[in-house]
Amino acid sequence: MTLTEPTAATPERTATSRSVLMCRPQFFTVSYRINPWMHPEDPTDTSLAVRQWDSLYEAYLALGFDVQLIEPVEGLPDMVYAANGGFVLDGIAYGASFTYAQRQPEGPAYMDWFEQAGFEVRAPEHVNEGEGDLLLVGDRILAGQGFRTDPASHDEVRRIFGREVVSMRLINPSFYHLDTALAVLGDDNVAYLPSAFDEASLQTLDRLYPDAVVVTEEDASVLGLNSYSDGRNIVIASRAKDFERQLLERGYNPVGVDLSELLLGGGGVKCCTLELRR
Ligand code: ARG
User: Fold this and answer.
1) Atom of ligand 1 nearest to the CA of 266
2) 177 CB within 6 A, ligand 1
3) What letter does residue 8 receive in the DSSP assignment?
4) Are strands 233-237 and 228-229 parallel, antiparallel or unpaired?
5) Coil vs helix vs strand at 35
6) DSSP 110-148
7) Which residues are catalytic?
8) 259 C-beta closer than 6 A to ligand 1
9) Residue 102 three-state SS
10) Residue 229 DSSP code
């Protein structure tokens, strides 16, 4: 093994163009509780959610992303969290099968969209919530379990995509999807909240990504990790100040957006974003 000399210079980061799927929160509200962030007894402001979502949409367009839209369905208030709609890689769309009845109709709705967009759709055999728990880092897929995604789906993903799939166990109900506890920064690095993972997962993360960014509980509590990177630009919650500082230090360009209204449903930037990889 060759050791690279540590350098004082900040590395130059390169962006690669991205294609993503989003869903306007036209019917967003919090009418049930399937994660600790959700309080159906409190009011939500749908028009504010739409305005904030628009700012994310505009940020992606400004970064030159190709942004595709799926039609929102009335009665599916969580459909805005497009990341959960599937996992798309190599032109294959592995469909989602949701844990809770309230979201189950979203699975077929997203699969229909993938089909019409020309993806090869694989109907899931096991419960999984798409990119919420399945994150591609370079050639490796990190797969979350513990609250939503059935570990049996990790094997299914390994069979379908023929990639290395590394399972991670989440232990804090507030960080119930992998994308709330871990952010993909580029092809070979991640950021995460250590307290969200069990001991074995922490050891694995430390072995795979010894130079990972460790975020504060405070930044994680505004879903700061729920961010989306093109390798250089990282769209994050504007309130995640220490995360922003760490990203700047490492040569990334953090782009802050405020999705406070969508946080009431337990989702942020990444939740609203499903990457489409042909
Ligand atoms: N209310 C949604 C749920 O609990 C939020 C989903 C957030 N999505 C995500 N990719 N983390 O299922």
Assistant:
1) 5
2) yes
3) S
4) antiparallel
5) coil
6) HHHHHHHTT-EEE--SS-B-GGGTEEEETTEEEEEESSS
7) 177, 271
8) no
9) helix
10) E
- Count Cβ atoms within 10 A of the Cβ of residue 233 and give its class: 0-12 exposed, 13-18 middle, 19 or more buried: buried
The strand pairing partners of 2, in sequence order, are none
Distance CA 200, CA 218 (A): 24
CB atoms within 10 A of CB 80: 25
Q: Ligand 1: does its nearest atom lie under 6 Å from the Cβ of 35?
A: yes
Length of the chain: 278
- pLDDT band at residue 226 using 50, 70 and 90 as cut-offs: very high
Return all residues near 103 (Cβ < 8 A) that are at least 6 apart: 34, 76, 78, 84
| Atom 1 of ligand 1: nearest residue by CA position | 265
pTM over 0.85: yes
Tokens 């449903």, residue?
265
* CA gap 264, 38 in Å, rounded: 6
User: How far apart are the CA of 2 and the centre of ligand 1, in A?
Assistant: 41
**The pLDDT value given to residue 9:** 72
Distance 256 CA to ligand 1 centre (A): 20
Token readout for 21 is 């799927």
265-278 per-position pLDDT tens digit: 999 999 999 999 99
Tell me how far apart the alpha carbons of residues 70 and 276 are, in angstroms, rounded to a whole number: 13
Does residue 11 carry a pLDDT above 50?
yes
